[in-house]
Structure formats: C-alpha cells, structure tokens
C-alpha cells in the first residue's frame, strides 16, 4: 500500500500514497490563481482595444457625416446668386425693423423718433454725406448706363410685402430659394393686387416715355447725316456731348483738308 524511498546506505522507508497526491494538488492550487489573473488581464486588454476601436469607428462615421453635410451646403451656396448673402441680410434687417415698428406702435411711440434717439451724431453726419454722394445724375453717357439707372430707379420704388414673404417661406420652405435643379413652373400664382400694381407701373412708364418722345419740328435746311429717326437722335446726343471735341475734324472733312 505504500512506496519505499531509500537513501544511500539506508533501508527503504515506506511513504504513504496520500502524501504525494496532497503535494501535487497544492502545486496546482498555487498555479491556478496566476493563470486566472493572466487570463483576466488578457480579457481586460482585449475589451480595452475593442472599446478604442469602436470609438475610432464612431469618430470616423461622424467625420464622414459632417463632411457630406458640408459638401451639400457648399454646393447650395455655389448655386445661389453672388449677392444672395447681402439680400438675405437685408431682408432679415427689414423684418427686424417691421417688428420694432409694431412694438413702438403698441407702446404708442413714434418709431422714427425712437430710431433717431439711438443714432449718434457721427453716424448721422456720415449717412448724410453718403446720401448726397449716392446715385448722382451725371447725364447721358451711353444707353447701357441709362438703362441701368432706370432699373435702379424702378427697383427703389418696389416696397416688398414682408408678411406675404413670411407666408410663402412657411409654405414652400427651401423651395422658395430655387436652384438650377428646382422645378417651380406653375407652382406660384401672383396675387391680383400684385398684377394691378405692375400694370399701373407700366402704364406710368408708357405715359412718361410718350412725353419724352414727342416729335421735334423738322428742319429742312439741316444736314442729313442719319439713316433713320433713331440714328438721328443718337447723332444729336453725340453732337451735344462730343461736338466741341470733333468740330475741327468735321470741318476738315467737309473742306477735304483732313490729314
């Protein structure tokens, strides 16, 4: 039932089998906690790597999403007119002015008086100087400049209906600011008041143009240097502004002494 362990020069000594099993089990118990700790540390490191990987993946996803949004916004900005930001800022400022006018009316105050109380003397002088320099009448230079001046004069007379603008903005949303890809044909019908206002303005322009285009008396003795009435009017305007500079050249051409 036992094993004999013999030393040098001695008789074998019986050893119990339970003692060997007890020593091997104690060694396994000492080795098992260190292996469990190593496995737990490895698992912890793995979880940490997975957590960092998920964070990097989410950051990459957010970066791609923000980049796509910026690309879409930039495309919209490029398709807008070049002066769109200025127009938008102007409309927002006009809306604020309208709101302030309503507040002053509710309090029984004069808006112009309240506005003047908020303006400093330096700003008032600067605006007055700017108003005097704005759009001076330099006379006729060419037809393009005259057409531009007429366009600016007509657009200054237009008073936008900001309440109607807000209603349209709520109704159409982003479609109110069309781009090259927008299809808005037939989606907007002008109001009867707007059509009547346009007709009245056109009739006023026609009436004013008829006064300017009254027929001048014809002079039989005048030199004929035109091919039709439109060309004759152009020559008269050119003579009025540049005649003093070209008088000598014209006389030399008539005498045949031009160099």
UniProtKB/TrEMBL annotation:
Say if the entry is tagged with keyword Coiled coil: no
> Where does this one sit in the cell?
Nucleus
Low complexity biased stretches? 32-42
Q: Name one Pfam family in it.
A: SYF2
Chief subcellular location: nucleus
Write out the ranges of the annotated region (Disordered): 1-44
Q: What is this protein called?
A: Pre-mRNA-splicing factor SYF2
Source species: Sapayoa aenigma (broad-billed sapayoa)
Recall the taxonomic lineage recorded for the source organism.
Eukaryota, Metazoa, Chordata, Craniata, Vertebrata
């Amino acid at each position: 039932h036992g094993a004999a362990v013999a030393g040098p020069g001695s008789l074998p000594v019986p050893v119990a089998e339970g003692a060997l099993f007890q020593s091997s089990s104690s060694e396994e118990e000492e080795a098992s906690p260190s292996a469990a700790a190593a496995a737990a540390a490895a698992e912890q490191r793995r979880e940490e790597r997975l957590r960092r990987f998920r964070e990097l993946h989410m950051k990459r996803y957010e970066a791609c999403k923000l980049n796509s949004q910026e690309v879409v916004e930039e495309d919209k900005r490029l398709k807008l007119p070049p002066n769109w930001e200025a127009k938008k800022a102007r409309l927002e400022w006009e809306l604020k002015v309208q709101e302030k006018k309503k507040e002053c009316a509710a309090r029984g105050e004069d808006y112009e008086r309240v506005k003047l109380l908020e303006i400093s003397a330096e700003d008032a002088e600067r605006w007055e100087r700017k108003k005097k320099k704005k759009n001076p009448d330099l006379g006729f230079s060419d037809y393009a400049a005259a057409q531009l001046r007429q366009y600016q004069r007509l657009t200054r007379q237009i008073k936008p209906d900001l309440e109607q603008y807000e209603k349209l903005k709520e109704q159409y949303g982003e479609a109110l600011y069309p781009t090259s890809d927008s299809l808005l044909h037939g989606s907007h019908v002008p109001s009867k008041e707007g059509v009547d206002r346009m007709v009245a303005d056109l009739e006023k322009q026609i009436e004013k143009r008829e006064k300017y285009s009254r027929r001048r008396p014809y002079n039989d003795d005048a030199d004929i240097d035109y091919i039709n009435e439109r060309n004759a009017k152009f020559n008269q305007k050119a003579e009025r502004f540049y005649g003093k500079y070209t008088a000598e050249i014209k006389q030399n051409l008539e005498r045949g002494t031009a160099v």
